[in-house]
């Protein structure tokens, strides 16, 4: 079950960086996989999403938000789900 308890409170200072996001006008389907998406389709969709992230002016803020709140799904800050899990595992080990 998804919970929002891990997310920052709804004040504008916590979320203002999203107003400058390169993905702001794109469909969320570019960044979040549909149910049962696997293999090459998933790899290609993530590759396209990460291409958008590379030119995003708030990639650092987005990545830090995703790691801090342990976003479980989608591409955030140029990182996919497994990449974030790997980084969080490394942080926990230190
Ligand atoms: S880094 Fe990627 S996911 Fe994050 S706000 Fe920018 S474009 Fe969107």
What order do the SSEs take from the amino end to the carboxyl end, as H and E?
HHHH
Radius of gyration: 14 Å
Q: Catalogue the ligands.
A: iron/sulfur cluster
Structural class: mainly alpha
Give the number of domains.
1
| DSSP summary, beta strand count | 0
Q: Which geometry do the CA atoms define? A: globular
Q: Characterize the largest beta sheet: strand count, sense, and whether it forms a barrel.
A: none
* End-to-end separation: 28 Å
Number of helices: 4
Beta percentage is: under 5%
| Residue windows where pLDDT falls under 50 for at least 5 positions | none
Question: What would the average pLDDT be, to the nearest integer?
Answer: 91
In which range does the helix fraction lie? 40-55%
How would you describe the overall organization of this protein?
- There is one protein chain.
- The protein contains 4 helices and no strands.
- The chain starts with 11 loop residues before the first helix and ends with a helix.
- It is an all-alpha fold and 94 residues long.
- [4Fe-4S] cluster binds at residues 23, 53, 56, 62.
- This is Transcriptional regulator WhiB.
């Amino acid at each position: 079950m998804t919970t929002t308890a891990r997310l920052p409170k709804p004040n504008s200072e916590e979320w203002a960086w999203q107003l400058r996001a390169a993905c702001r006008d794109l469909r969320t389907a570019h960044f979040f996989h549909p149910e049962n998406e696997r293999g090459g389709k998933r790899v290609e969709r993530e590759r396209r999403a990460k291409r958008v992230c590379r030119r995003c002016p708030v990639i650092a803020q987005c990545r830090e938000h995703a790691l801090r709140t342990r976003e479980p799904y989608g591409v955030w800050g140029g990182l996919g789900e497994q990449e974030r899990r790997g980084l969080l595992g490394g942080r926990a080990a230190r």
